[in-house]
């Protein structure tokens, strides 16, 4: 199913999501197509919703080069790992953990093959979805050092927030109502 079909079929209670998706994705004026669709793909993957991810990958492939699509998927994958690890370091009261080596491979952060700002924006979007403050700070700092304005950062985070919100709605609507047993 196409992502537009998924969006158009959203229930009335998710009308704000539909309107925001239309404004931020269908009528995007703030991001390059690569920034936009890389953010949609990486964010959809972070939702863990199979239907949304499949639709985002299908649509993303129409707007991204194969290398950029792979990089967006790589950002979601590596941030899925890093966000857990670094959020743990942030939340644990034992400060010794932060002094120990991570010993996790993160080569794709240097070898993704796309514009560095774009990869960092996708990593930032996934980190925001996954709630890792340390990663959000690190990627926002790199993006800003590379010359991106705060407005660009917020444009990516807005897209990520809307895509993320779609996941639970689509999951809730996937359950056939006749299968729900009244208690």
UniProtKB/TrEMBL annotation:
It catalyses: N(6)-[(R)-dihydrolipoyl]-L-lysyl-[lipoyl-carrier protein] + a hydroperoxide = N(6)-[(R)-lipoyl]-L-lysyl-[lipoyl-carrier protein] + an alcohol + H2O. SUPFAM superfamilies: AhpD-like. Its EC number is 1.11.1.28. Keywords: Antioxidant, Disulfide bond, Oxidoreductase, Peroxidase, Redox-active center. InterPro entries: AhpD (IPR004674), AhpD-like (IPR029032), AhpD_core (IPR004675), CMD-like (IPR003779). Pfam families: CMD. Disulfide bonds join 132-135. The active site is at 132 (proton donor), 135 (cysteine sulfenic acid (-soh) intermediate). GO terms for biological process: cell redox homeostasis; response to oxidative stress. One of its GO terms (molecular function) is hydroperoxide reductase activity. Residues 97-174 form the Carboxymuconolactone decarboxylase-like domain. Belongs to the AhpD family. Antioxidant protein with alkyl hydroperoxidase activity. Required for the reduction of the AhpC active site cysteine residues and for the regeneration of the AhpC enzyme activity. This is Alkyl hydroperoxide reductase AhpD.
């Amino acid at each position: 199913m196409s992502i537009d079909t998924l969006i158009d079929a959203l229930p009335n209670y998710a009308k704000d999501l539909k309107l925001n998706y239309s404004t931020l994705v269908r009528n995007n004026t703030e991001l390059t197509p690569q920034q936009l669709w890389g953010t949609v793909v990486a964010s959809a993957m972070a939702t863990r919703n199979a239907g949304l991810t499949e639709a985002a990958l299908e649509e993303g492939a129409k707007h991204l080069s194969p290398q950029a699509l792979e990089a967006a998927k790589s950002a979601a994958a590596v941030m899925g790992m890093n966000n857990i690890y670094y959020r743990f370091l942030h939340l644990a009261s034992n400060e010794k953990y932060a002094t120990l080596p991570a010993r996790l491979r993160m080569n794709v952060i240097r070898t993704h093959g796309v514009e560095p700002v774009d990869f960092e924006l996708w990593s930032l979007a996934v980190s925001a979805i996954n709630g890792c403050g340390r990663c959000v700070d690190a990627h926002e700092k790199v993006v800003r050092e590379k010359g991106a304005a705060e407005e660009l950062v917020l444009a990516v985070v807005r897209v990520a927030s809307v895509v993320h919100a779609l996941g639970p709605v689509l999951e809730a609507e996937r359950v056939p109502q006749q299968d729900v047993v009244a208690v």
